[in-house]
Amino acid sequence: MAFVIFAGHGDRMALGNRRKPGFRVFGRSAVVSIIAFLVGCASAQDYLDRQTGQLPRLSAFPVCHGYGCRWRTMVNMDPSAWEEVRALFRPAPRSAAEERIRLGRAIALMELKVGAAAGTATDEAEAETFSSGPDQLDCIDETVNTTTYLRLLEQDGLLRWHRIGRAERRGWLLAPLFRSSDFITNTAVIVEKDTGERYAIDSYFYANGRQPAILPLAVWRQNWRPQPGDRGRTVFE
Known about the structure:
Blueprint: H1 28-39, H2 44-50, E1 61-65, E2 71-75, H3 79-87, H4 96-118, H5 139-155, E3 162-164, E4 168-170, E5 185-192, E6 198-202, E7 213-216, H6 217-221
Antiparallel strand pairs: 1-2, 3-5, 4-5, 5-6, 6-7
């Protein structure tokens, strides 16, 4: 179903261990976490802006994985696979709310189709920064990929009630040091055409092939997280 092209890896950083008077010395994991948020989950929109004018095509589109688009694998989706995606929108949604339900199913199905080709079928929920291998996706990977999938749907005329918005970010840079759950994360965004209300489409909190969380962006910004035990819905749930 696909062919692959691997991009180069990012440079590694060395951390010093010198104490300075008046400064608290944090554990290595805390320091690594801060660097991760500085250079990684900072802004998925930066990655998307670099793709301006490079619309994805079903015959060839990039999939980000391995933390912060460290790997980009080119895949394609054959006509039979795409027809399965299109079938999720028949009959056409009669409201924006109904279209959001269809979009959740479509994103999950596209993740399943792409997973085997890109090597991301085993992506887990909330992949940890810097400890992720090429099979895992962090918040930037998820946001960029979800936006790519939305663009493919839009190009095929399957977005009738929504348009694609700019990716959004929330969180606090120093959250790891203070053991706060309000860490920096990103999400793809859609905008309801009639009302202008923005909705987050966040795939980061669920494993590959599970429906993303779709909720008002204002709610997502309030440090929204799934309830304990919520593993997300499958394509047809």
